[in-house]
Amino acid sequence: MKFKNTRLNKLTCAVASAVVFSTIGLTLPASANPSPNIPTSSSLNPFFDESKLTGGLYFWSRERTRKNVAWGDTVYKPNLVHTASNLVLDYKSGYAADMFGIELAGVGALSISDTTPYTVNEIALSNCRSWSQKFDHGGDENCGGTNRSGAKIFRAAAKFKSDPIWINAGYIQPQGQTILTNNWSFTPGAYQGAEIGGNFDFGTAGALSTSYMWVNRYMAPWHTRMDKFYQKDGRNTRVSYAHSAGFKYDFKNDFSIESAFGQTEGFIDYYLGRANYKFDVMNRPLSASYGFYAANDKAEDNTINDVYDGTAWKQALMFGYKVDDVSIRLEGTWIHAEGRSGEFGGNLFKNYASGDGRGDIWWDNRSDFNANGQKAIFLGLNYALDDWDLKGWNVNTSGVYAWDAKPVTWRFDEALGQRVDDIDQNQRIKERAYSVGLNYTVQDGRAKGTYFSLYYTQFFNDNSKLGSYDASFPNIFQDEKDFKAMVIIPFTII
Q1: Which N-terminal residues, if any, form the signal peptide (predicted)?
Q2: How much is the pLDDT for 144?
Q3: Do the domain assignments include residue 53?
Q4: Residue 42 domain flag
Q5: For position 418, what pLDDT does the model report?
Q6: Model confidence pTM above 0.85
Q7: In the chain, % of residues over pLDDT 90
């Protein structure tokens, strides 16, 4: 396998060098070690002594089919069918002088089979090195080819700590209390930037965690190059940076509050507030949370960059409860998102695979259930089979029912270059889905921690008159069946 990316070669060499240097003194035979009376530099340096090199081998197979009655489909047709694997290496140094360290991580992806080549499968690598490169290839996200095998670095960071302050800079993932998050595959996306945070303990009065993050580029898990940020008009309007600040205060009485603000320069402002409380019900703890998430855009000119009419928001209630071996989740959301977008998501960037933002809700039932006006209820059950002498096994099931999804208020016609008000505002959509899963984690032996999962979802859209991603509902698709199989084998080298 040849790599033409010299930057990647340099970073790969850096990872290899870090691994070699971190193992010096650990792999030498006893006869080659210095006298025990002479302390070695590595034994005195936590940068090396506390280094860790871990990794994982990931296997993924998926078969997703979709029916589109509006297009004349009477059967489910292949939509995303592929098999791929990832090999991940993750190096974390200790802290020199108890202050300075580095982190390096990379992934090798293997595309084993792919019968839907013009759909990004998000496990293998895309032929588009970045989101914006698709504009050089007629807008096709895969840049005219299939998903591919390859390798890349997804973390290359310097880290600093001096209690209670910590700093990360380089190719990083968010770690603090900000709104910024990343897209996920088996590996996370990466921002280019820096994050500073602090953890302050006030004894019985509580504890404060706070952080600030500034970034100017992003790389999705399936891309291999850092990309700039843009507004919704392709590569016409650049977003120079994004930043966010947030905090969490734990009152140490089972009650905590969170708040954060995020901004993409000249484009989107995003806010969140959340309260969390845990209390006993029938002698068992019930966790309860309420979250309010809001966003507005800077454009009020009826262009494609004019995402919302006024402020869009999501309200969410989340409950968690456990009865013996059964874990229960009950959650609900309510969306308000009038305007051209017609949906509310946590993404500050509004372009696919260009970064993400915190939304706190993940139901793994295919749809985002986030159209304007939409209300949704989720119920999830997970049953650990320990009492059946099946330690490590669990089964889970969940379901979502969502109603009152409204269409976009207006659409932008790119051919005309203007706002068009031709959307029937009387349309409504109901969505529902259910999922079942079977999981097993190896409990002991050399394979301890190895994880196997089978997961099936069936999704229903009760409106058969509209095609998937219709102009009226650009984030809603037609009926689907989705089957996923996954194996994760973690390992530790040092």
Answers
A1: 1-32
A2: 64
A3: yes
A4: yes
A5: 94
A6: yes
A7: 79
